[in-house]
Amino acid sequence: MAGNSAGNLLGLTREELEEWAVAHSQPRYRGRQLYRAVYARQQTDFAALTDLSKDFRQLLAANCSVRYPSIERRFESRDGAVRYLLALEDGQTVEAVYMPEEDRTTLCLSSQVGCAVDCRFCFSALLGLKRNLTAGEIVGEALAILADRPLPKQTRLNIVFMGMGEPLLNFVAMVKSVKLLSDPGGLAIPWRRITLSTVGIVPRINDLAREPVRPKLAISLNASTEEQRTALMPVNRKYPLRQLLAACRAYPLRPGERLTFEYVLIADFNDSPEDARRVAKLLRGLRAKVNLIPYNPGPELPYRPPALERVLAFQKVLADRELPAFIRISRGQDVQAACGQLRLAGPAGC
Ligand code: SAH
Questions:
Q1: pTM of whole model > 0.90?
Q2: How far is the CA of 247 from the centre of ligand 1 (A)?
Q3: Ligand 1 nearest atom to the CA of residue 163, by list position
Q4: How many whole angstroms from 263 Cα to the centroid of ligand 1?
Q5: What average pLDDT does the chain have?
Q6: N or C: lower Cβ tally within 10 Å for the chain?
Q7: Backbone φ, ψ for residue 224 (5° rounding)
Q8: Which residues' Cβ are closer than 6 Å to ligand 1?
Q9: Which ranges of the chain would DSSP assign to H, the alpha helix?
Q10: Could you read off the pLDDT of 214-238 as tens digits, one per residue?
């Protein structure tokens, strides 16, 4: 596995770091000190850890390090978003997007190199799946960006797993990375500010429901009938809408929590008022909100974004049926950082 086996401590939990310390003839508490250094203080240089004893620092320097994915390129959008091309230790690359707003910043992270799910409208699908990311690499995406662009005080940090890949097809590493990101003694990003988006891998949704530490859940719905969804997302043959929505109905929500349904609006395909009425019917009775994402175009695919009035009309149908719906204009479109565009050839980076 890339990362840990090469002496990179990134991705190890508190317990694993304690074991690491013990395996190196150190007291357990030194593992906890390391955990705080890596995640709470985000240190990568052991020499700077002057509160650790000198012999321990020497042991660390001789045996391991903390290495984030390296920033290969940055593509800065006019709207403030930055698309990062990050290189992993085996030379594979992934992308992640930094999206600042007034009082909060959202990081959009990838879960896999490429993607095995063949959604017809998404450019990540064109790559195929290269490999899963490790938990250390996933957390490393966030840490690499935060080291490059430190978060101003008072700015809330949100994480969305909406980059390349299907997070629920990398379940174990995903759950571990959420544990690391949300642990109050480490990075301390509350679960409410972490959202995992899935095409709807039904058995893994059921597994996620049983995890003690889990993020919020978003489902890429994208269609209002089985037939339409299968045409856009062939995975719908394996996990049809009917089964997916049954899993959503059974999914245990925490107080105040809602499911998010993403709906990519494609002109003259899934953007009619009848589609909106069907979506409202499908989601009836669920504690849910809908994010409407006008399709982001790119080369080679036949789809087009809808006119704004179609988007507004769609939203109104949902709102009239008491289904909260938000229009999400994708950030970073000018640098191909928008939803579905990661891995399109971009303009020269800086
Ligand atoms: N594989 C997961 C995580 C990626 S999330 C998932 O699909 O949910 C990426 C989101 O962007 C999904 O909701 C997807 O439907 C949307 N998307 C993909 N291609 C898009 C495009 N060209 N325009 C707008 N949204 C797109």
A1: yes
A2: 20
A3: 4
A4: 9
A5: 93
A6: C
A7: -115, -5
A8: 121-122, 162, 166, 197-199, 220, 222, 262, 264, 293, 295-296, 339-340
A9: 14-23, 28-35, 54-63, 135-148, 171-182, 202-209, 226-232, 235-238, 241-250, 273-282, 308-320
A10: 999 999 999 999 999 999 999 999 9
